[in-house]
C-alpha cells in the first residue's frame, strides 16, 4: 500500500502544479475511498494508515 501511495504522489503533485484541481481531487478521493475500505475490513490497520496519511499529507503540503 505504501509503495502504491508513493507512486501516486507524483501524479497528485503534478496535478497540483498544473492547477488541475479536478484530477487532484479525483486521485485523492479514490485513495480516500480505498483506504476507508481497508480500515473497514481491518480495523487494526487504522492507526498505521492514519500515521501514513499524516506523513503523506505533510509531504504534499511541503511541495
Index terms:
single chain, globular
Please describe what this structure looks like:
The chain is an all-alpha fold and 63 residues long. The protein contains three helices and no strands. The chain has helices spanning 2-17, 21-41, 45-62. Helix 1 (2-17) runs antiparallel to helix 2. It is globular and about 35 Å long. The two termini are 22 Å apart. The model has no long low-confidence stretch (mean pLDDT 86).
Give a concise summary.
The chain is mainly alpha-helical and 63 residues long. The chain is built from 3 helices and no strands.
Percent helix, as a range, is over 70%
Outline type:
globular
- Point out poorly predicted stretches: none
Quantity of strands, as a count: 0
| Radius of gyration from the alpha-carbon trace, in angstroms | 12 Å
Strand content: under 5%
Mean pLDDT across all residues, rounded?
86
Strand-helix topology:
Elements: H1 2-17, H2 21-41, H3 45-62
Helix pairs in contact: 1-2
Amino acid at each position: 500500500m505504501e509503495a502504491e501511495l508513493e507512486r501516486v504522489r507524483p501524479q497528485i503533485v503534478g496535478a497540483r502544479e498544473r492547477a488541475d484541481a479536478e484530477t487532484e481531487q479525483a486521485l485523492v478521493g479514490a485513495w480516500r475511498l480505498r483506504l476507508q475500505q481497508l480500515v473497514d475490513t481491518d480495523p487494526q490497520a487504522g492507526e498505521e494508515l492514519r500515521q501514513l496519511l499524516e506523513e503523506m499529507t505533510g509531504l504534499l503540503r511541503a511541495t
